[in-house]
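Write out the bound-state structure for zinc ion.
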Amino acid sequence: MADPVVPEPDNKDWTWTLERSCSECGYDANTYGRDEIGSKIRTTAATWRSLLGAGSLASKRPPDGDPSSPIWSAVEYGAHVRDVYKLFGDRFDKMLKKKNPKFRDWDQNKAAVKGKYHSQEPDQVAYELAVAAGGLADRFDKLSDDGWAETGQRSDGVSFTVETLGRYLLHDVFHHINDVEAGYKQLKS
Ligand SMILES: [Zn+2]
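---
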């Protein structure tokens, strides 16, 4: 399979999703207690397993009129979410070990090309996603009261606590579940 078109970097700031529900996917990051973040992360692994179990459909991109900004296939979104779970696990550890650390920049589109997301095997991605999600969920489940308030900074200066990091991350994951469901609808119509 030829390498797909590389989309522009996503420089949009999604931190507003911590303040209000997302107009695109309807997800509201403030409707549950912080103690639920770990179990919600765990639940998403099962959802991704089922989304990625769609056979050959999981590797197909839905038709899209804009080639500079294509919609990813389910396996590409799954690989992205797997890497987000890994990345946020690293950020989480950094926040607990250091005082207000600065996160390294991460370009998700470069990661997708470098990691050849489009040619990855959906079952393998589902497995690796579940492992990464479980590792991160464990970290949240074991947090002390003080741990929730530890802070870190993104390279663009946006500040997170461990709690807002978890809520921000969960929106991203649910947003992409929504993307994949919409993509399947398009592919099946
Ligand atoms: Zn959303």
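---
Residues 162-188 form the longest helix (27 residues).
Helices lie at 37-51, 74-97, 108-114, 122-141, 145-148, 162-188.
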